[in-house]
């Protein structure tokens, strides 16, 4: 009986050893021992963007057999940040994360990520072909913290057919907001007391406020927009940028020639596609969907973001998001994540990404590829975005604030109050600055 029991124990031990040996050959914690390194990639791209990411990840996985990336959609950027905070407490976060531009300061302060510059330096990776104005946003103290991925800027979209109908030159878009206001009056159509087509519309979006500040060549926040040192207060209430923007916004809507479709940019886009507004500003990233959305009903024109004042010498700042490599204390995973990011920003992948979404290719080498040249011939409107990007100075790259998501909401609330005659431009500037400064002070105290 004892011999039989001993035999059973020995047999069970052998099975355990064999099983352990088999599982060891598929070690996913790193590429040690010839196994596959598995990476978790969190992103916030739905729709066409999400489909494009899935295809790019699939192509990367097929291109080699050492690394497997698992892409996981996390909802909105804000949702992703909240999940990130929770996951870091239990070491259950991703290896790579897509984060929106305004989360940059927070991510740097969190210490969750390894600066991209470290991988660039170790690999002696040549970044000279990458767009300098795009890299500029994510560079702090000469160190690139994340790799730009889905980058965009605002441009003016306009209905060329409506211009012709109003006796305007369809090749001459307004260059200043004053010109835009004059042209809007000619483009607006009324049927009795009702407006059937507005000359211009603009979503109540904090990003546009930031862009108009950059266009003026004026800082949003102190300490050189939070780049020389952490921003401790906004600057737009002192340098005139905010008052100029709020006054422009109010005067424009008070004419009755500008439509207000609320905070959702998609609602203004739908109004433009339906011919209910003849001009709008929006991201370059929606160019493809705008052209498809108009369905040939009219010809879409594009132009630089108009300046507030005729002599403004600023440019536009980058919007969108970038890719971060999380510091999971695993060198093999870090190296694998870097290989994936190099694949994602390669010229071929960036052309595919641009064609699928409308975001900029972040490498200039993409424009040398025949596929990209053909695409620009088919959609010459995007050349406007390229020219505007290259015409903008690095100094227009935008601010870094640890409380930027909240700051945008504050700006949007004040714009809404202004348009509803609940405040004056002066009061809106003062209230916005005070509220954001209070949030900044609290953030900086807790992130020393």
Describe the structure.
The strands form 5 sheets. Strands 1, 2, 3, 4, 7 and 15 form a 6-stranded mixed β-sheet that branches. The protein starts with a helix and ends with a helix. Helices cover 49% and strands 15% of the residues. It contains 19 helices and 15 strands. The longest helix is centred in the first third of the chain and has 23 residues, at 2-24. It is α+β, with helices and mostly antiparallel strands and 448 residues long.
Backbone shape: globular
Mean pLDDT comes to 91
User: What's the story with the biggest beta sheet?
Assistant: 6 strands, mixed
Q: Which structural category do the helix and sheet elements fall into? A: alpha+beta
Strand content: 5-15%
Tell me the radius of gyration: 25 Å
The number of helical segments is: 19
Relative helix content: 40-55%
Give the oligomeric state of the chains in this entry, treating copies of one chain as homo and distinct chains as hetero.
Answer: single chain
Instruction: Kindly state the number of beta strands.
Output: 15
Note the gap between the termini: 69 Å
Low-confidence runs: 1-29
């Amino acid at each position: 009986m004892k011999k039989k029991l001993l035999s059973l124990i020995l047999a069970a031990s052998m099975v355990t050893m064999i099983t352990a040996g088999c599982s060891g050959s598929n070690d996913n914690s790193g590429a040690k021992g010839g196994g596959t390194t598995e990476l978790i990639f969190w992103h916030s791209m739905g729709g066409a963007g999400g489909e494009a990411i899935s295809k790019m990840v699939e192509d990367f996985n097929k291109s080699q057999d050492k690394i497997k990336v698992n892409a996981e959609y996390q909802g909105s950027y804000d949702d992703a940040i909240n999940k990130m905070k929770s996951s870091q407490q239990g070491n259950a976060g991703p290896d790579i994360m897509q984060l929106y531009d305004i989360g940059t300061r927070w991510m740097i302060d969190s210490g969750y990520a390894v600066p991209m510059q470290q991988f660039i330096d170790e690999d002696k990776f040549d970044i000279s072909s990458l767009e300098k104005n795009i890299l500029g946003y994510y560079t702090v103290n000469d160190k690139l913290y994340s790799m730009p991925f889905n980058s965009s800027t605002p441009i003016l979209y306009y209905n060329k057919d409506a211009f012709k109908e109003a006796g305007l030159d369809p090749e001459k878009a307004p260059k200043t907001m004053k010109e835009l206001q004059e042209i809007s009056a000619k483009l607006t159509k009324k049927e009795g007391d009702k407006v059937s087509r507005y000359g211009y519309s603009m979503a109540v979006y904090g990003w546009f406020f930031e862009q108009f500040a950059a266009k003026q060549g004026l800082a949003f926040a102190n300490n050189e927009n939070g780049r020389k040192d952490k921003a401790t207060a906004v600057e737009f209430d002192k340098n005139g940028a905010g008052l100029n923007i709020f006054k422009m916004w109010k005067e424009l809507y008070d004419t009755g020639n500008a439509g207000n479709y609320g905070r959702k940019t998609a609602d203004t886009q739908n109004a433009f596609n339906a011919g209910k507004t003849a001009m709008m500003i929006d991201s370059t990233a929606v160019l493809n969907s705008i052209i498809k959305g108009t369905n040939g009903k009219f010809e879409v024109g594009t132009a630089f973001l108009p300046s507030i004042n005729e002599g403004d010498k600023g440019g536009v700042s980058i919007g969108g998001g970038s890719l971060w490599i999380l510091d999971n204390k695993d060198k093999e995973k870090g190296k694998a994540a870097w290989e994936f990011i190099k694949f994602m920003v390669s010229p071929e992948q960036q052309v595919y990404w641009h064609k699928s979404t409308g975001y900029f290719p972040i490498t200039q080498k993409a424009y040398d590829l025949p596929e990209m040249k053909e695409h620009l011939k088919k959609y010459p409107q995007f050349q406007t975005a390229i020219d505007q990007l290259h015409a903008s100075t690095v100094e227009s790259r935008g601010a870094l604030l640890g409380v930027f998501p909240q700051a945008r909401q504050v700006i949007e609330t004040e714009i809404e109050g202004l348009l509803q005659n609940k405040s004056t431009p002066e009061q809106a500037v003062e209230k916005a600055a005070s509220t954001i400064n209070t949030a900044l002070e609290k953030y900086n105290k807790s992130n020393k």
